[in-house]
Amino acid sequence: MPLFDFACRSCGHEFEALVRGETRPVCPACRSEDLERLPSLPSVRSESTRAQAMKAARRRDAKQAAERDHAQRLYEASHDD
Ligand SMILES: [Zn+2]
After folding, report:
1. Using CA atoms, how far apart are residues 33 and 54, in angstroms rounded to an integer?
2. Of 10, 41, 74, 81, which sits 20 to 30 A from 29 (CA to CA)?
């Protein structure tokens, strides 16, 4: 099912719409067709998806920081003079 997230350039409303073939969605808030398609996400509530993406990014940053610390300790251990 081609379900996409859109952001309306006229009023900023964000919504999900099914897109089939040549059908173009319109903003449910202001009926504008001037829409921006947001990067496709799994068809779950976009709020929780964004929260999960934030959490994943924080986990990734924490992992990278841990790897940097580990590398620094290895460097210090092998240059212990
Ligand atoms: Zn709108």
Report:
1. 30
2. 41
Tens digit of each residue's pLDDT (9 = 90 or more) over 68-79: 888 888 888 888
Ligand 1 centroid from CA 52, angstroms: 26
Quote the DSSP letter at residue 12. Answer: -
User: What string of DSSP letters covers 36-74?
Assistant: EEPPP--SS-HHHHHHHHHHHHHHHHHHHHHHHHHHHHH
How many angstroms is it from 66 CA to the middle of ligand 1? 44
Distance CA 53, CA 41 (A): 10
Residue 2 Cα, ligand 1 centroid: separation in angstroms? 21
Nearest one of 10, 1, 14 to 42, comparing CA atoms? 1
Q: Which two tokens stand for residue 78?
A: 């092998």
* pTM of this prediction exceeds 0.85: no
